[in-house]
Design a protein that fits this description.
Length: 110
């Protein structure tokens, strides 16, 4: 059995700025957002989506899928970081701060 480590478990953050001036641009932006949701990402902010990954291999597969589903215009950035790094994130909601949500429970199958 392989021990799970906060240094092997990964998070992905997709940040994007897509044009929405015309109807086709809005359609493309909506399609990209829906793609991210279908891939298991959760919306953190309107143009910021996050997803937990079990390791580097899953991150690489997601990066490939994102690359194949990019809109024709706009900018998309993908950040990856370990679960240990994610634990240090501080979120501000209005004037109050809160730490990152609790880590998802990992179940062991045997």
């Amino acid at each position: 059995m392989v021990a799970l480590s906060g240094y092997r478990l990964m998070w992905m953050m997709v940040l994007f700025d897509l044009p929405v001036l015309t109807k086709p641009q809005r359609r493309a932006a909506t399609k990209f957002r829906q793609f991210l949701l279908d891939q298991g990402f959760e919306m953190s902010q309107l143009s910021v989506y996050m997803r937990f990954c079990a390791g580097k291999e899953q991150v690489d597969a997601q990066l490939k899928a994102i690359g194949q589903n990019l809109p024709q215009t706009g900018r998309v950035h993908v950040l990856t970081f370990t679960d240990r790094q994610y634990q240090n994130i501080v979120c501000f909601d209005g004037r109050t701060s809160r730490h990152a949500p609790k880590k998802r429970q990992q179940y062991e199958l045997f």
